[in-house]
Amino acid sequence: xxxxxxxxxxxxxxxxxxxxxxxxxxxxxxxxxxxxxxxxxxxxxxxxxxxxxxxxxxxxxxxxxxxxxxxxxxxxxxxxxxxxxxxxxxxxxxxxxxxxxxxxxxxxxxxxxxxxxxxxxxxxxxxxxxxxxxxxxxxxxxxxxxxxxxxxxxxxxxxxxxxxxxxxxxxxxxxxxxxxxxxxxxxxxxxxxxxxxxxxxxxxxxxxxxxxxxxxxxxxxxxxxxxxxxxxxxxxxxxxxxxxxxxxxxxxxxxxxxxxxxxxxxxxxxxxxxxxxxxxxxxxxxxxxxxxxxxxxxxxxxxxxxxxxxxxxxxxxxx
Length: 319
What we know:
The chain is an alpha+beta fold. 55% of the residues lie in helices and 20% in strands. The protein has helices at 2-29, 39-65, 67-124, 146-165, 180-190, 244-264, 278-288, and strands spanning 127-129, 134-141, 176-177, 195-202, 206-207, 213-221, 224-226, 231-237, 272-274, 294-300, 304-305, 310-318.
């Protein structure tokens, strides 16, 4: 059937094409004009229209005779286009995921190279300072003599680090190496009004006996993290929680959440300090009644800023 249709279309095109050419020639000789065009251009237009007429007849016959052609044209092609559009939409999240994976791989490769470097340095000798380790912490308060204050901090940090790296050397020397741009940035920021915490960190692993330590600064705003009497975190103790094992678990979780919260608020301390015999206080409270709910609270015992120690007590009360 398909071959018969193809042969028929070839014969039909062959018959109509000379007719179109003849019609164009006749119109050209007759000096016939359409829309005030020159006869030659009119003949060209007629020839073009004849070609279009051939194509239209061919498609019409295909639609009339071939059910498969109609299926492909009106059903399969729109379906394929829709599928293609949906595939493109589904591809975008995959491309984003691919970028994320590539970034993760890149970061892992950097971390791996860093670990390889650390291993080499560990094999070479006694590492006394690790990369990114905080070497010195100082409070910086903006004032007209800020450059002099910073110079004193740098000298104090030099003496402290030298005792770690070259403890046998009695002569005081400048062991810390800074980037000039870091020094300029510290002076620019601290010259503005404010109270700051300056962290001096090691840029590399340092072996015992090294002559220099490359460092970089981290400047933090010295702000209030918690105030005296502030309830930092709390937990409700249900009736089922009032045995000592569950209470100990709740206390550990509560203190861990407290540490995470103060870190999130900007504190640079790694641990919190508890005061008072809160275990005895909790036990004495629970002896009175174990048939009600209790609230367990972590309360700050003083105002603490960014670099200050966080001192807390645990209170228990009826809920």
